[in-house]
What we know:
Elements: E1 2-8, E2 10-12, E3 18-26, E4 30-39, E5 46-52, E6 57-59, E7 67-71, E8 77-82, E9 91-100, E10 108-111, E11 115-119
Parallel strand pairs: 2-11
Antiparallel strand pairs: 1-3, 3-8, 4-5, 4-9, 5-6, 7-8, 9-10, 9-11
Amino acid sequence: QVQLVESGGGLAEPGGSLRLSCTASGRIFSINAMGWYRQAPGKERELVARILSGSSTNYEESVKGRFTISRDNAGNTVHLQMNSLKPDDTAVYYCNVIVRTAWNDPAYPYWGQGTQVTVSS
Length: 121
């Protein structure tokens, strides 16, 4: 019903930058929140950044001041600008979108397929 397409990611040197994007399509009545999670090898998946329908944002403590989450005017694409990257940022990054598919349906989370971010010299 809802498809998420991620782009961006790849390899960056420490101190470098990368930009992730995720576009939601399909049966969408409204989007409650859009965000990015990451999972490093041997670790649990964690929230990196999230933007709510009212444009308020949340960031994981270690990325504050380095990462910026934004949403385009149409509302269905979320971006994560990652600056001053560190080796600890290496992980698979997953787009997450909370969607209502009809006015009387509850909101459900949908996940992207994941994109690898590697920070290494």
